[in-house]
Amino acid sequence: MTSSGERNQVLGVRDLVYAYKTADGDLEAISNLSFRVDEGEFVSIVGPSGSGKTTLMKILAGLLRATRGSVEVSGKPITGNVPEGVALVFQDYSRSLFPWMTVEGNVAFPITRRGLSAGEVAERSRQSLSAVGLDGFARRYPWELSGGMQQRVAIARALAFRPRLLLMDEPFASVDAQTKADLEDLIASVHQQFGTTILFVTHDIDESVYLSDRVLVLSAHPARLLLDREVPLSRPRDQVATRELPDFVHLRSEIAGLILRPGHPVQGADPVQTR
Fold first, then answer.
1. Measured at the alpha carbon of residue 11, what is the angle toward residues 7 and 14, in degrees to the nearest 5?
2. Domains of the chain by start residue, with CATH
3. What is the pTM of this model?
């Protein structure tokens, strides 16, 4: 992986704080969080349940406004609106697709008002559907497809947008194990093919290591950064062989120790590092 000094920063988060208003005063969900994601990187975020991962994604997508701190995409601050060049893939794919539109219509919808010709919209839609293995399904409707195929449509729609930053909030949490493995390999292939910068939230430690260039580990509520670790695994990766590598097992154990046994780091693990 290219060093961060040779890449352009796509996402910059600095001293981010988010606090909910409650009857008893402000309750911090995120506390002084700082990290960056550079062009072409695949970065995963893991942490305990309730650690603020989804809240963070909503802030990055412009759906929530930070209490303090700064968030920038391509050098432009996020001020409460959906940032230019950012696409979001949700966990609940069934609600993110329009059931009355064809697959092609769903994929084309975000780009129909971007000044492209009808031919360009059709070509982008075709390329995106081909990238996720849905050639021949353009005229189908979402309700005619399996859950895994519906999530592929959601990914194709995001790709058609040609985002500078793709946010994925637990996108494979609602599918069975085999479909999940297929989708993991799909998004890894898409990342390599398009060079898309991806920030991926997951509860699955193995998934975070398998997919990523870097893994960020958040603390329990309120979210703080415990670890920012590069993944020392070559690409392409294999669902069986990669997961048996000593580097995979070591990093998975280090992350699991931080999440499942806070305050008791794994024996022999390196000190916590941030970039």
1. 115
2. 1-85+163-275 (3.40.50.300), 98-162 (no CATH)
3. 0.88
